[in-house]
Amino acid sequence: MVDNTERQATRERKGLSRMNLDFGIFLTTFGMVLLMEMGDKTQLLVMACASKYKTRHVLAGILIAIIALNLLAVILGTAIGGIKVIQDVVKAAASLLFILFGLLSLRQEEETASCSTGTSTGAILAVALAFFLAETGDKTQLSTLSFSALYPDSPLSVFAGSTIALLIADCIGLAAGAVALKYIPVRIMALISSFLFIAFGLASEWKTLRENFAVDESKALIIVGITAVVSLLTAALILIFQKKQTKNSCHPAE
Prior knowledge:
It contains 10 helices and no strands. It is mainly alpha-helical. It has one domain (24-247). α3 (41-50) crosses α8 and α3 (41-50) packs antiparallel against α9. The relative contact order is 0.17.
């Protein structure tokens, strides 16, 4: 009876310790994740999103994605890192979705010209999905997985450090995108945004084919090349159709 009471008391103490913030672990996680995120592709992704959506929508989407990513990392620990098939599927889907986002960003400009900006919920979810896919399996999420495994008794410290570091790094990208909009025309920013998304998709596709599916360099180059050609042709068709629609709207038939 005494042993059971002692074990229960020990479990309670461990439970309480998990909820305490260890400042040393917090600073370690914060510093490492911030350094790894600076200059990462998601900063450029945030800048691209800033050219399409309102700042508050981008910030909300980023926050949702960061919280979801870090909760997964801390709760699952290193377990998800060992499930290779999940990483392969997610990375393959991410590369195609990035290209799709790039093509849709061209259409978004047309919708903006016709005063249809879509719902705020749709914008937030689009940003959150793009950011979530970009960071899933990335070095910053894997570092959070590692820290959660290294400090299993301080999940709150790891979660807080990683979340704040990601938020600060990507807010820098968001601010840069917002400043750029003051000096660069919206049409140019839409084209830049489209290019960045498609470039991310092609780079992700190459990396996924080589590292996750072990495709040899020549075959991977052919596959990525075909994807690039199809993407560029589709983008050209969208721009041609958009130009025709704009011309028709400026000269309506009488």
